[in-house]
Amino acid sequence: xxxxxxxxxxxxxxxxxxxxxxxxxxxxxxxxxxxxxxxxxxxxxxxxxxxxxxxxxxxxxxxxxxxxxxxxxxxxxxxxxxxxxxxxxxxxxxxxxxxxxxxxxxxxxxxxxxxxxxxxxxxxxxxx
Length: 128
What we know:
This protein is mainly β.
């Protein structure tokens, strides 16, 4: 590694699609694919809030944007979410493997994330 990623521990929420006996996705009443949420603790990460959106008043933060660096091999994808300091963030866009400058080996996985609409609720899932 070029540098130590960090001392943050994140909870990675992996969302595994539910499939029927024929391998087709199982849909809910609204036509959305059902998923099973599997929480995995990942140590040695770095995460920071990069922006906040205040639309209701100057004191009510309604959304946070952030970015993180996760160790190589972390099973994160665009369906995932992470919880950092009790706030749940949805991965926003595809995770990006970042190669080490000297070796070309994967140094870390970069993610951008956005807080859920109800970020204090660990079961919340931002849609759209």
